[in-house]
Amino acid sequence: MARPQPHPNPVLLCFVEFELDESNACLSRNGQAVALAPTPFTLLCVLARQPGSLVTKDALLDAVWGHRFVSDSVLKTAISDLRKVLGDDPRHPRFIETVSRRGYRFIASPSSALSMPPASATATAASTPSSPSFIGRTDEVARLQRAWERANGGERAVVWLAGEPGIGKTTLIEHFLANLGDIACARGHCVEHYGAGEPYLPVLEALADLCRSDPTLPALLRAVAPTWLLQLPWLSTPQEKDALRRELAGVGPDRMLREMGELLDRYTEQRPLMLVTEDLHWSDRATVQLINYVARRRGRTRLMWLSSFRLAEVVALEHPLSSLRHELRLQRLYEEVVLDPFSEIEVADYVALRSTSLARDEAFVRALHERTDGVPLFVSSITSEVMDPKDDKTTIQARLANLAVPENLAAIIDHYIARLGPEQRTLLTAAAVCGTEFRVETVSLALERDHSSVTSACEELMRAQVWLTQSRTTNVEETIELPYSFRHALFRQVLYDRTPRSLRTQLHRQVGAALERDRTTGLPVAASELAMHFDRARLPMIALRYYAEAAEAALLHFSPDLCIGLTERALVLLMQAPEGTERNSLEITLATLQGVSAFHVFGVGSEAKSAFERAYRLLADVPEHPMRGRLLHGFGYLLGLRGDYALALEVAERAEALSCAANDQELMLAACIVQGEVHHLQGRTKTTRRWLERALAIAEPLDIGTNEVFAADPQVMLHGMLAIELVRSGLLEQARVHLQQARVRAQKLRQPMTWLVAAWQEVLIEVRMGNHVRVAALADDMQALVDEYSLALGRTACRWWRGWADARRGSPSDGYLRIREAYEEHTGLGMRSGASEVLGYAAEALLLAGDCNAAQVELQEAFRVGEELGERVYLPQLLLLQAAISRAQGRPDAGIAAVRRAVEETRAQEAPWLELQALVELCEHPDATAEDLQALATLIDQLPETDGTELAKRARTLILAAKPA
User: Which among 799, 796, 732, 719 is positioned nearest to 769, based on CA atoms?
Assistant: First the structure.
């Protein structure tokens, strides 16, 4: 390999106690010569030639070693040697500063003139392409440059680079970025996956990349994007992660989109950002959704999001990116740059890098273009194959003429595979099983080979510039060895496909075992990756355990879609597992996680119910299953929302029995809560209070907060639920105490779902008290929570309560529309719990609007639904509403009959507050009897906590008016 030529402007520089004289190859300290090997000396000269400026690793490799035939580790060694000679501490540098993951900077202040090009010439040199081998693409580079200029001006630019394999997408990106200098740049890659792809993988890689180069980003993540902070676990302590998970329990995936939008807006206020995501044809759906969101987001953002993909694969495989391309193109929200093959002129330019005489030979260039179709990777491979500096032009031309024409790139790769030695092929085959990127340690363990010998083999393959390169995307610290990666994904793909199935199976088993060992040393190995390897290794039980772990991790990271994908694959694989307790246990885990995820994605429909039922049936075989709490509480809660109250009580009773057998207080708590919720909806006031009081006695010492079973704090939930029953019982002062306890604890916990539950229960009380002003305020608070945190629960309820308040505040028609739209959406998701009450709100709004007939139709629907579900909690109010509609229709007798039925229903429900409402209305009627008034007087004396309420005042006025003078 030829050494670099001497620089035309040699460095002559004094800094601190050193003098550097490049022309005389001399470094001295205080006048005494310092021994320094040639490579570190040249490295020092290159750095000193650009004082205060970042010199990238690529630029240093080119300048010092002449070409990229060596790895980053060689550069690091030279830097280390140089620092030792200079006495420089990398943690507190005086001379050479490390710019994490990007390069180095000479920071010593010169104390005499520096011989180098003028400033204008330096600026020009910095803007020229860093790679002398870059050919063509002038128009494409110009388009990218214009997009970056727009981004600099505050106009977000979403740009897609499309082309076929080997067309030069990555090369163009590298060239373009190299010309931009020291900018904020974050890069991530999509990887070929098996089954569901890891959500936001390239974006998370890019964020990690940016965090390492910009120490201000983690703080910004904490402030505006906590859901994304959770995806980067090394940025938080275990305690911080636990607190974040609790705070974000119940948050929907949509929150992640909004947070990323805000993060990009805030970050780019300080400096423009280049976000690069490569190979979108392998992207997960979440990343595509995020691109769509960012492209449509309004406002000033100094962002350019540059992505690449294989056009044919996106179109042919109906990738979600295909439809997005069409939508965004119609709205002119992105720009697409399509790369074409090289022209004959560009092929000639490429050949000129190796031989100017051959480049002028039109016949040779034309023949090379015809054999390669101008595909750059093809051109490079064929050129390397036929050209040898030792041969003359005629020999090279003859070799090209005699070369068999490969049908495609895969055929070229087959040719290279055939030229591998046995040891090299074994190593690369194992690497291909690992993936596009691999660690030497993993391959060494899998093949049971010495680490140093595998490293040497990888270095040799890298120097050949065909198979491998060294990744520069995941280096966290200078001391960590970088992984290797295949130069082109096609090389890895073809090699993997050409490996016999039996050998692939064996290698997946060995790689999986090696990754397990890596994991025990603290290296981050994803459970989904292990699941894939053991799945392909035909070891279903091991694979299933990792699928379960990966599915649970997906839920923790707000990715229910991924969880569903993982559990679907695992439940198919389950058929290959031997029958027995372990298989049943895994099936319970997987089906429960699928049920929870389906609930988040699809609501309470058949998908979630079927999954929970599958796990529920198997629980008898594994009654001690660790996920039984999540299963039974989740299933009971889902059945309650669906209005399947009898089955919900059956699940609660089973949970109670299991908790008694195992003395499991958390499971007993879940059973009590489900019992309380169902009995409340069925109108059993005293029974509900008993269950809730029992649950609260369990919850207080447990002090759970939120966890995988309870998305909202049980104590807040129970205080609020109990307050509702105390109001129904006429114990208003006691209800206020519990409501205040719920508010205080919710404020202390600062957890969105818990806040929402507290507001939900308070609004139910205020509706029963008839306080429309407070209901409107609470509904608006709930709407803000739902919007900010993407909480699926509450999305409809806050709208129908706002409609109820609007109807009572003078806008009944608008209120009715709000109520009805929210109700349709709610029931459309399969949720029928509380349906009779909401239909009652709609009927009341129509009555206030003066449309008695329509109100009667709505009310009859409410009665029908309540009867069908066995839902009686709101029946007294429905009967009073029937009385009001009958009076408005001129049917007073029907009205008084409805009121008397309401009185009977309140007594059956053991709900004195509701009975007081019905008796007051009854006694205000001219046909009220002395017995009715006596019943009212007796009841009001039994409810001292109602004193001061408007209802109590009306009651006492009626009683006084009835007394003889």
Answer: 732
DSSP H helices in 438-580: 440-447, 451-463, 489-498, 501-520, 527-536, 540-556, 560-573
Interatomic CA distance for residues 459 and 827, integer angstroms:
63
- The answer to whether the predicted template modeling score (pTM) of the entire model surpasses 0.85 is no
- Residue-wise pLDDT for 782-820, tens only, equals 999 888 888 877 889 999 999 999 999 999 999 999 999
Residues 6 or more apart from 511 whose CB is under 8 A from it?
430, 433, 434, 442, 446, 533
Tens of pLDDT along 257-307? 889 999 999 999 988 999 999 988 888 888 888 999 999 988 889 999 999
pLDDT, tens digit, 9 for 90 and up, residues 3-19:
445 566 678 888 888 88
- Local confidence band at 29 (pLDDT 50, 70, 90 cut-offs): confident
What are the respective helix, strand and coil percentages of the chain, to the nearest 5? 65, 5, 30
Backbone torsions φ then ψ of 656, nearest 5 degrees? -65, -45
Radius of gyration of the chain (CA): 36
Give the tokens for residue 26.
């001399």
734 against 365, higher pLDDT: 734
Half-sphere exposure at residue 676, Cβ-oriented, CA atoms within 13 angstroms: 25
Encoding tokens for residue 725?
Answer: 């029953």
Q: Which of helix, strand or coil describes residue 276?
A: strand
Specify whether the CB–CB gap between 560 and 256 falls below 8 A. Answer: no
Sheet with 468-470, side-by-side order of all strands: 437-438, 484-486, 468-470
| Size of the chain in residues | 965
Tokens 């093949």: give the residue. Answer: 447
What's the CA dihedral at 644, 649, 655, 658 to 10 degrees?
Answer: -130
DSSP state at residue 387: -
In the three-class reduction of DSSP (H, G, I as helix; E, B as strand; rest coil), residue 27 is classed as strand
Q: What are phi and psi of 43, to 5 degrees?
A: -60, -45
Residue 727: exposed, middle, or buried by beta-carbon count in 10 A (0-12, 13-18, 19+)? Answer: buried
**What is the rounded CA–CA span in Å between residue 54 and residue 474?**
20
CA pair distance 327, 758, nearest whole angstrom:
41
Q: What single-letter DSSP state applies at residue 159?
A: E
Among candidates 175, 187, 209, 212, which has minimal Cα distance to 59?
Answer: 175
Please state, in angstroms and rounded to a whole number, the distance separating the CA atoms of residues 64 and 68.
10
* Contact predicate 873/680, CB 8 Å: yes
CA distance 474 to 481: 10
